[in-house]
Amino acid sequence: MPYCEDVLNNQKDKKKRDGGRLSGAELDPKNGSDPGVETILGSDYDVTYRSDANGVTQKVSKACEELWGLKPEDIIGRSVFDLERDGIYKPSITRMVLETGERVQSIQVTQTGRKLLVVGTPIKNEKGGIIQIVNFSWNITTGPLLKDDSVSRLFGIYDKAMTEAYNSDKTNRFVYASESMALVAQIAMKVSEVNSTVLITGESGTGKEVIASFIHSHSKRSGKPFVKINCAAIPEQLLESEFFGYEKGAFTGASRDGKPGVFELAEKGTLLLDEISEIPPSVQAKLLRVLQDGSFMKVGGARPVQANVRIIAATNRDLELEMREGRFREDLFYRLNVVPIHLPPLRKRAEDIPILTMFFLKYYNRLYNKNKIFDAKTIMRFQEYGWRGNIRELQNIVERLVVLTDGDMITLPDFGFPGGLPDGRDGEGVMVSRIMPLKDAVSAVERQLINMAMEKFGGTTKAAEVLGVNQSTISRKLKKA
What we know:
By secondary structure, this protein is an alpha/beta fold.
């Protein structure tokens, strides 16, 4: 699963050093007695939460009254399913843990308008059955509640989380904090268990290859090859031979021994066809045959070759539009679009920016033997920037800052060198990705501005003041939305 700080493993390590032991046998479901968990409850988290194997709340810290609007005694004994249904918080991280059986990290929105980063961890017995679920939450609501000290503390937690990532399998670097990417992670995990064809879409730099690698590494094919080919980087006249290989003497200049194509190289493994929209029609027809029949013909070959390959395709284009305009085969599109996964651009999931920033900072600090850190205001500026280049641009900016800045603390003035991050929002702060009626565009911008103001200021009075309208206007438009 995507990385986050494994606080329970930290407790296990501590107990081992102290000569103790933490296991399912130590947990008493009746009274919830567990030295490790009790140590964590009430420590460096904004709110902690514990439920039994049925999702019934056993214990919650006092901060719940401020963040969820209910006292502990109003929550203890209630099912998380009922609390979620009543809108106390959405989504229920405990429910997600119970459904997946795994640790879950996601953003939770409460009825008081707070936004929490929640890590839910299942406590299991020696047979692997869930005994309890423990959640640790940090208030990441922007605006007055997010002072510099709390931001710094949160980023310190992110930094610890990244240490866990770099002590783990390097092929699984899939980090996120947003609800939209939590959904992507759930789909990717489910589809990794089967051999269905996957079509990953999203703007350039959003991490399509990372998701493909994540799916492969969690599949039964993980011990077999993961082969990637960029369809846009290969000349059209060579693409067929790169795909399917060729027999010896197939054409002038061909190797005397022939050459295997990527389908052969990926046998029993996974083949990522990146920029799938760039494949010419002649090769599209032959690719369709592989998907339909599980076989292909080498260039110059006389007999079909069987292919046992899992196909993942990726593109930054609208394949449905390409299909309607005759540039992409309709039958091939529907063969590829078995399980679609769309990656939203980074500007639409600002919750991911801090944890991604700390992830890349950790990487480049190690690579260049540095000890750089970001101050809180810089990360907040990152969340305001448009990131047209998405995660790739963020990664490049972090590397540039690690290499070029003086001192260990990276602050806003460090963006003064050529090519640095512009102040404020990217351009005018309005992004248009498709043509639409002006009335719909105005409504969409209104909704975005109101949502941003409500997230930042937490109430209609201040939001109305900043947006230059009456409070009643904000209230009316919120009800309409």
